[in-house]
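Thread title: Can someone regenerate the structure for this chain?

I was given the following input by a collaborator and told the matching structure tokens would be attached. They weren't. Posting the sequence so someone can regenerate them.
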Amino acid sequence: MRHLLLAAAALLLSSLSAQAQVEPQFTKELTSNAPGSSDLLLPRYAGSFILAQTKKDFDELVLPLGKAIGSSYQTDADKKLRYEKVESVEGRLTRTVYVIPEGRSTLEVVRNYTNELEGKGAKTLFQCSKAECGEDFHKLHGVPRALKPEGTAYNRARRDLTGNVLEYVDPSADQRLWVGKWERGGGSDVYVSIYAATQTGGSMGNVSSALKGRVLVMLDVLETQAMQQNLAFVSAEQIGGALGKEGRVALYGILFDFDKADIKPESDKQLVEMANLLKSTPGLKVFIVGHTDNKGAFAYNTDLSQRRAEAVAKALTAKHGISADRMVAKGVGPLSPLAPNDNEDGQAKNRRVELVRQ
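Best answer:
Regenerated them for you:
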């Protein structure tokens, strides 16, 4: 009995020692949400945290709808993992990687999500577990997605964890995939892909120690919608011509993060042209007017459009030296549409920034 007690004590000390090896910086990142992240459409599994998230206004998602063909992409000549059936869908895509509380199983987590979705009317398109999902599903699908966090706000520890989050998985022992479709009506469908696996550790030192044994969930939510077709670049000369003729010009080259007032880097080219016009016409004063479609509450859209208009004015002042007293920022939400809001094309046309001559 004494030997058994000693063995048990040694095992406990070994376990505690292994836990102690996890550096506080990694523990902190695994128990806090990624900067700028949020839950979308679905409540999160209780006690989980968002490790990484990406949001794209328009992207493609390839969904496996049949079992994997072949054991491994490494053994195929063209290095591709194939499925009996796939479907490509396009629209607004949000990818979220969750760290699940310790002691939970992939089955329990996925079942919680699917029960929630089915309660909303979602239908199962495909599901698989273990080898059925493919030996290298996590490498071909999980890792490339998880490796693309919106990372400028992520510190080194979070980037390290994200880069290894689905690198080490035992697919024959514990991985699950569920793919479903939720028809919300109004021409907008939602596709959901839930991939869950248990991290087996690896050779990345403290990063591997922090992730080992944790259930990780990669949740893809894609809302089908038409691509915005009117993101045309407008030169300073064209802006000046429109202001002289119409007194206003709609600009679709100013892009924002989804549901935020953060200006995307690809907007810089259009901001430069706006600044060039203002610099070449010293006496010109303008209103910068933010517009939205009619999705969501009126008060929310009005506030969002105001914050976006202010963000444009601040960018022109801070980055391009335009005097703030030459601009007045105003958000009008959905009050001045250019097209009906009853379809995606019209909504896309209504989401814009305008320059209006004072």
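The CA atoms of residues 310 and 329 lie 5 Å apart.
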